[in-house]
């Protein structure tokens, strides 16, 4: 194909997009990307609250603009320190290897007694998450390693419920 043909194809594609004639997948992808602007960053997220807690369940979810990690807790008010960097096993300090180009250490002021060291969730097929791994519990603090595709924006927040419990939510965006 010559340069002239490529220019004509590009111009025709641009006109089709403007007129709403572009293939559905292209229009959907463009609309989705436009709706995914985030104002989050990649700096540490810390809350020094301490309420004795137990982690009851660890869940993950896929969303249009981000992947989500949820820790279900038995009480409200949890302290956390979530940051990019090397993940260490609590107590021993051993490095916890993770899949992905960047690691997020999720340190929570809660017991994780019912979990075993190793994979916590199957995140194959996720856009951003590469691995969720339980690193251990020591002296009332639990560490979870989150391997991600790259250093991307994240946000951390707590939601009340269900009942007297709460949920610690960590979202990692698919792109900047």
Features:
four-stranded antiparallel sheet; six-stranded antiparallel sheet; alpha+beta; 2 helices; AMIN-like domain-containing protein; 2 domains; 176 residues; Immunoglobulin-like
What does this structure look like?
With 176 residues, this protein is of the alpha+beta class. It has two domains: 3-34, no CATH class; 45-173, Immunoglobulin-like (Sandwich). It is 15% helix and 39% strand. It has helices at residues 3-18, 24-34, and strands spanning 45-47, 55-62, 66-73, 80-84, 102-108, 118-121, 129-138, 141-148, 154-160, 166-173. The strands form two sheets. A six-stranded antiparallel β-sheet has the order 1-4-5-8-7-6, with no helix packed on it. Strands 2-3-10-9 form a four-stranded antiparallel β-sheet, with no helix packed on it. Strand 6 (118-121) and strand 7 (129-138) form a beta hairpin. The chain starts with a helix and ends with a strand. Mean pLDDT is 85; it is low at 5-31. Residues 1-24 form the signal peptide.
Strand arrangement within the widest β-sheet reads 1-4-5-8-7-6
Tell me the count of domains.
2
Radius of gyration: 20 Å
Instruction: State the distance separating the first and last CA atoms.
Output: 34 Å
CATH class of the largest domain: Mainly Beta
What is the chains' assembly state? single chain
What structural class do helix, strand and pairing data support? alpha+beta
Residue stretches low in confidence (pLDDT < 50, at least 5 long) are 5-31
Q: Which bin fits the share of residues in helices?
A: 10-25%
**Could you spell the SSE succession in H and E letters?**
HHEEEEEEEEEE
Proper CATH architecture of the largest domain? Sandwich
- Quick one: overall form? globular
